[in-house]
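Let's see one such:

===
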Amino acid sequence: MRRLPSFAIPLSIAVGILVAVASFSGLFIDATYASEATSFATQGRAQDLVNLVWVLPLFGIAVYHIRRGLFSARIGWLGILLYFTYTYLLASMGLAYNRLFLVYVAIYGLSLALLIVGLGCIRYSDMHWRFSHHFPRRATAMFVIAMGTSVALLWLGDIVPSLVYGTPPPQLAEAVSQSLVVQALDLGIVVPLSIIGGVTLLRRMAVGYLLTGLALAKAVTLGPALLSMAAFLTSAGLAVAPPMLIFAGLVTGFGTYLAFRYVRSLA
């Protein structure tokens, strides 16, 4: 494992501060989501809460332990950077323009840059021997494959019929941008990452151990965010689709357990 450049830690701290600013503003400043549909604004605040109480503390722990050379912290750091890249690319493209636009752009831009730098500092040939024989390789691979497949089926179930019959998918009803930004990012990032990671892990390929770690980090951050969204929507009197609630619960439960086993298995 190569050392990270000296700027990685300061820039990570800057990303954390910017995420805290964006999340605090979303929770407590009404103007942030004033132009959004009620359901979108509610989900945004729910994710902001999870960012503040769950994701940022995890990110802080990872950044702290990176300085001690812990490889598991490096994987967690990369996974949360992927989450920040995804989340704030979505915010900058999918939300109505607001005063936090440049903050969103700065977060995903810095996170993506750090993610690329961090991936370049990993020796993939070292991945195999870092894991003990207690690592549940097959179970982890099957979980991330199932997660990616479920996301694909969830969105394609609406998109494919809309293309066949020439009708707009239901997700466009409240979308400000009139574009399927969430679906595009899920199908273009989450699905390939999960399925390729799982398949390569089953084949014991070095890259599979890394991609699976990133997918597990996504599950540990995405799952609680979805559960928080469901709780916020319910409290606002809005409907929550049962499949989404079941998916969020399974991803959170199994993802957290397997992420714990992943970290414990690292030498």
